[in-house]
Amino acid sequence: MQILLLIIGAALGESVYDAAKIARDLVHGVGVVGELATIMQSNSHGVAGVPYTSLQMVWDCDNEPGYPMVGLVSWGTHAKNVQTNANASIQIRHPSLYPTVDNPANRPGFLNNPRFTIFGQLQKQEKTSAHMACLLSKHPNAREWFNSHDFQFYKLLVIGSLNFIGGYGTDHYVGWIPSHLYLPSNLPSNHASCVFCRPW
User: 114 and 23 in contact (C-beta within 8 Å)?
Assistant: First the structure.
């Protein structure tokens, strides 16, 4: 399977290794947001077992790069869901994929930018000063929000492969990234200098 991924990537000019580095760079950026999905546990609204998704601040820490962190309020839907079922996914996009007035969604090439989904299980973390410092290094404006609400830190333990869409399939890698290629300690040294692997 890995050989097939390499052949496909080579044909497109962007390899599975490039895609893994692009994904990791996006997670490691400043001001990253993503769509967190957990499985609804309560059936009070007739939606038990259905994915629930909402936008969240996402970051990773230098001591564990590649493992996304999120902050969830203790009384929120996601926090309640993971008490019973920790399975979750986070979709992360290149910032240009979030439309603004000056950056509309119907502009040419809008979808020719990377986005990917990480699958795993959310594990509650201690709210340490190190975790808080890590959060604020990526989301400096989060201090007041996190101090005034009962937030808990969760880390997504990566399970299985990542689903990656680099942009238009004729130009970029589209497919699965094995998790052992995505996690930085497993990337080959000759790809270490690849920063987004393409012009923006």
Answer: yes
Distances (CA, A) of 34 to 13, 46, 169: 27, 26, 22
Residue 176's nearest CA partner among 185, 184, 166, 186 is 166
Chain centroid, CA 158 distance in Å? 10
Tell me the residue length of the chain.
200
Tell me the per-residue pLDDT of 91-142, one tens digit each, with 9 for 90 and over: 999 887 776 656 666 655 678 889 999 999 999 999 899 999 999 999 999 8
DSSP string, 109-161: TTTSS-EEEEEEEEEEE---HHHHHHHHHH-GGGHHHHHHTTEEEEEEEE-SP
